[in-house]
Amino acid sequence: MIKFNIPPCTGKESEYIAQAIENRKICGDGAFTKKCNEWIEVHTHTAKALLTTSCTHATEMAALLCDIKPGDEVIMPSYTFVSTANAFVLNGASIVFVDIRPDTMNIDENLIEAAVTPKTRAIVPVHYAGISCEMDKILQIAEKYSLKVIEDAAQGVMSEYKGRPLGTIGDFGCFSFLETKNYSMGEGGCLLIRDKDMIEKAEIIREKGTNRSKFFRGEIDKYTWVSAGSSYLPSELNAAYLYAQLEQAAEIYNDRMASWNLYYELLSPLKEAGKLSLPVVPDGCKHNAHMFYIKTTGLKERTALIDYLKKQNIFSVFHYIPLHTAPAGSLYGRFCGEDVYTTKESERLLRLPMYYGLKQEDVRFVCRKITEFYQ
Predict the structure, then answer these.
(1) What local confidence, expressed as pLDDT, does residue 240 receive?
(2) 299 by DSSP, 3-state: which?
(3) Please, what are the domains in the chain?
């Protein structure tokens, strides 16, 4: 049986979790949390990284830091996970969905400006599959209309756009360390902060609205409630698990990239024959092999292929149901313009098994069975 995903494990996770227990510090912001934050700051050059309980919570923090309020509008693609929208809906904002590009499945940067209204406060580009949105154009629009840019880089750890790490290009960036991601802590995420003057406010929001972080640094003699906030600190046990993988980040990256490249090589004949489509990586984008997907001719063919692979003990999955087609999507948002590609392309896309440690013979087996299906 070839599973769709196996959570990453490098071998030191148990040792580091045991260390956290021995240190009698298993709540948030212990030694391993700080090590993870520092690793992310060093490797992304962001002003500040704050580990969170999820990418959802990192996005919620970004919404609070951008002062999103009832009546505000936030622009994003409909082809994304519900958390991208929920973070802003919780603050009373309305979501304005924009169509995607069929090549990258990312928001179509050329349609964003038409969605801007006097109520617009932010743009949320989602870097699907770790492949960057066209950030230059998005930043130009944001500057023109004085909008915030919050990058949903849940799938983008170790990816880049024109040499800049994803998550560091907009005002805020949000990572995910869910068990399906390249680097995992089970449940977890991280908020990346570009501007230093936002760090203290972010720390307060993350620490239940208190200035507790300043207290532990010895900057004040006691801490108190100073603002609205919540508890966004992950357990030290989760951070210990994650740090073992961050230490081996390059090895994990290279392993996944080898699988991605082999998939692309072996399935290219089907692409050339017009049987299916393969991922597109635009110039200037460095991806992280977060996923490998193919596109069938449509929903009926995709369903048949999923069933065929399952009979071969290969587990593949489709991805998001477009948010604007969901009950909550019509309640909390609207689609701007025409849905030319969002629904059509979402019904074609199929994700293949991809994880750290995936054997090359398994990749070859998957590709052989896909080829048999089309023959």
Answers:
(1) 98
(2) helix
(3) 13-246 (3.40.640.10), 249-374 (3.90.1150.10)
Q: Yes or no: say if 109 and 98 are a contact pair by the CB < 8 Å rule.
A: no
For residue 97, what are the β-bridge partners?
A: 76, 335
pLDDT of residue 125: 98
Residue 49, strand partner residues? 192
Under DSSP, is residue 123 helix (H, G, I), strand (E, B) or coil?
Answer: strand
What does pLDDT average to over the chain? 97
Q: What is the model's pLDDT at position 217?
A: 84
User: Contact 318/306 with Cβ under 8 angstroms?
Assistant: yes
Q: What is the number of alpha carbons within 13 Å of residue 317 lying toward its C-beta?
A: 11
CA–CA gap between residue 364 and residue 358 (Å, rounded) = 11
What gap in Å lies between CA 371 and CA 306, rounded to an integer? 13
DSSP string, 260-308: HHHHHHHHHHHHHTTS-B-----TTEE-----EEEE-SSHHHHHHHHHH
- State how far Cα 263 lies from the chain centre: 22
177: helix, strand or coil: coil
What band does 28 get if pLDDT is binned at 50, 70 and 90? confident
Whole-angstrom CA distances from 122 to 50, 146, 228, 370 are: 21, 9, 21, 41
Q: Is 324 helix (H, G, I), strand (E, B) or coil?
A: helix
Q: Round to whole Å and give the CA distance between 287 and 166.
A: 10
Quick one: which H or E segment has residue 264? Answer: helix 249-272
What does the pLDDT look like over 196-231, one tens digit per residue?
999 999 999 999 989 988 888 888 888 899 998 999
Residue type at 71?
Answer: G
HEC-encoded secondary structure of 27-42 = CCCCHHHHHHHHHHHH
Could you tell me how far CA 104 lies from the centroid of its own chain?
Answer: 15
Record the tokens describing residue 166, joined without a space: 């994803």
Q: Which residue has the tokens 């991922």?
A: 279
